[in-house]
Amino acid sequence: MKPIKIIIIALCTFTVMSCAETQQVLQTAGRVQLDGQYAVTSVNGKTTNGQTITFSGLSQKISGNGGCNDFFADYTLNNLSLNIGEIGSTRKACPNMDKENEFFNALSKVASYNKSDGVLTLYAQDNSTVIVQATSN
Known about the structure:
Strands 1, 2, 3, 4, 5, 6, 7, 8, 9 and 10 form a 10-stranded antiparallel β-sheet that branches. The protein has one domain: Beta Barrel (Lipocalin). It is α+β, with helices and mostly antiparallel strands. Helix content is 32%, strand content 38%. The chain is built from 2 helices and 10 strands, in the order αβββββββαβββ. The model is unreliable at 23-30 (pLDDT under 50). Strand 9 and strand 10 form a beta hairpin. It has helices spanning 2-34, 98-108; strands at 36-43, 46-47, 52-56, 61-65, 70-78, 81-84, 88-89, 112-116, 119-123, 130-136.
């Protein structure tokens, strides 16, 4: 009876470790897929330009420019689920801050992503509302 218990425990341990390793591989693949600089083309369905996002997969940080101010934040990735942490930015005052504020607000609501043919699409919590679209530079 003891050998069977040992085999069952070994199999359970192997299964749990394999799942953890698979999860880590998926997260690493996602970070590599996102890695790079993007030019933002739309925010909340409105065309925009001059805004950028750079994903650094190794450090799990994003940075870029909101149109006036540079910004930075941490991000976490779990499969296709993407969570952008609190956004910090420089504090320059520019004539029209509305687009930048809308962009930063949209980034704070990102819940998932898709990248296809060099186009990065960031989705809201409901996974159907496109809040940011960007193209690879």
